[in-house]
Specification:
This protein has 218 residues and is of the alpha/beta class. The protein contains 10 helices and 6 strands. The protein is 44% helix and 11% strand. It has a 6-stranded parallel sheet with strand order 3-2-1-4-5-6. The relative contact order is 0.18. The chain binds 1,6-di-O-phosphono-beta-D-glucopyranose (B16) and magnesium ion.
Length: 218
């Protein structure tokens, strides 16, 4: 208990909005498979791993495929998705995110990424944010998906801090649950109705301050 020493940031929905590109790529796959996939359906995929996202998509379409075929479909979607993220520019960083990362770094707070995405490195490079992170834990480094706390516990370990010294920033309910399961403080980014379990809920990092971070200390 006590002092906060580190911030762990989710990527999609916190630092950048990649959900719109995921949506285009999933919708295209659904179209090829012969069914519609709406923006509302896409909400169910936020924070969820690629293969679980595919399972949800196939369930919506009422179709089933072999594991081998599912791997091929996920790969196809990812290739399409990557054509979008490879064109991303730093002006796509969400308002206040870079400024907040820089401010925390200047105050001596350690910073790590905790994302389900296997494309996190590509995205951070495109946004020119990679050097701000002391540790990057992404979908290539974990075996358990959120709400399991693995991604954040590995982040704390890499930063050499205790779980209770960390604050997690998350836009997905499963991510908030992962932070709490890991015995960490959590700031939800989005709607209080969805993220009500977080210690604080804000609209975006533009609303975050060093004082608000300190106010989360026990
Ligand atoms: P990939 P986050 C998550 O990122 C996305 O919210 C989710 O929609 C996506 O399915 C997942 O990454 C996996 O992404 O296909 O790139 O490995 O919110 O955990 O930063
Ligand atoms: Mg997210």
């Amino acid at each position: 208990m006590g002092k906060i020493k580190a911030c762990l940031f989710d990527l999609d929905g916190v630092i950048v909005d990649t959900a719109k590109y995921h949506y285009i790529a999933w919708r295209e796959l659904a179209k090829e498979l012969g069914f519609d996939f709406t923006e509302e359906d896409n909400e169910r995929l936020k924070g969820v791993s690629r293969m679980t996202s595919l399972d949800i998509l196939l369930e919506i379409g009422g179709v089933s495929h072999s594991n081998e075929e599912k791997l091929r479909l996920a790969e196809k979607k990812n290739e399409n998705y990557r054509t979008f993220i490879l064109k991303m520019l730093p002006d796509e960083i969400l308002p206040g995110a870079k400024e907040y990362l820089e401010e925390m770094k200047a105050k001596g707070i350690k910073i790590a990424l905790g994302s389900a995405s296997k494309n996190a490195m590509t995205i951070l490079d495109r946004l020119e944010l990679t050097s701000l992170f002391e540790a990057i834990i992404d979908g290539t480094k974990v075996s358990e998906a959120k709400p399991d706390p693995e991604v954040f516990l590995k982040g704390a370990e890499a930063l050499n801090v205790l779980a209770e010294e960390c604050v997690v920033f998350e836009d997905a309910e499963a991510g908030v649950e992962a932070a709490l399961a890991g015995n960490m403080k959590c700031v939800g980014i989005g709607s209080p109705e969805v993220l009500g379990k977080a210690h604080l809920v804000i609209d975006g990092l533009h609303q975050m301050t060093y004082e608000k971070l300190r106010s989360l200390e026990d």
